Amino acid sequence: MPTMPRLPRYRLGARVYDVVSMEQLVYRPGRRAAIEALAPGAGARVLDVGCGTGLNLPLLADAVGPAGEIVGVDASAAMLRQAGSGSHDTAGRT
After folding, report:
1. Is the pLDDT of residue 45 over 90?
2. What is the C-alpha to C-alpha distance for residues 22 and 24, in angstroms, rounded to an integer?
């Protein structure tokens, strides 16, 4: 089985990445536009490649609704842990 590459900068910064990246001011409009262009409907299945800390998850969860499914993958285990920590409001989804 392949092993995950070591990405120390993400391991150290995963917990503060969302704040340090200035997500709300800089990247959120682009995320919204990309998800609108993707246009996943209710019940859709979405694969978020390079999901990082899961910043797309709340927007995707709103788009696909409770019947939908979102799978996030990332090369950084620390970023995936942050994505799965429940730090983003996804209406109780894991």
Report:
1. yes
2. 6
